[in-house]
Amino acid sequence: MSSLDDVPLGEIRRHLHHLVALADTGERPRPTRINGPDHPMPGHEWVIVEDVRSTRPHTWWIRTAEDSDVSAVYLSTPESMAPGQDFDCVLTADARRIALAILAACDRADHAAAGITRLEDRRPEGDTDRAH
């Protein structure tokens, strides 16, 4: 039996970071801001700054457009020509599939890093099922 005194601080930090990440995905986040009708893209906006150490912030912007007839979301990535101003339009059905695939990949990466094998992470040999 080991006590917490025997656990390295780095391991505690990794576990805490993992728990905070899980908590952040436990419920839908509230918008960072709501752009009014006078804004070029009126609607809800979520701004996510990645937790990376670099010379510039890695920021993602996700927006809805209240005045659009299309069911879509608009994404601006850290690699955009003008981050926060240059947006790609993604239909909501595709955006949902992308979001769910990212969550599934995060779960897989967390389990692999922890050395945990899950039954659903294994596919039978020859299974070529692809996302559509």
Provide a quick synopsis of the model.
By secondary structure, the chain is of the alpha+beta class. It is built from 2 helices and 5 strands.
Low-confidence stretches: none
Overall number of strands: 5
- Biggest sheet details: 5 strands, antiparallel
Structural class: alpha+beta
Within the largest sheet, what's the order of strands? 1-2-3-4-5
Order of helices and strands: HEEEEEH
Q: Tell me the distance between the termini.
A: 48 Å
Shape: globular
Q: Can you give the mean pLDDT?
A: 80
Helical content band: 25-40%
Q: Give the C-alpha Rg.
A: 19 Å
User: Approximately what portion of the residues adopt beta-strand conformation?
Assistant: 15-25%
Number of helices: 2
Describe this structure as you would to a colleague.
With 132 residues, the chain is α+β, with helices and mostly antiparallel strands. The protein contains 2 helices and 5 strands, in the order αβββββα. It has helices spanning 9-24, 92-114; strands at residues 33-35, 43-49, 59-63, 72-76, 88-91. The protein has a 5-stranded antiparallel β-sheet. Strand 3 (59-63) and strand 4 form a beta hairpin.
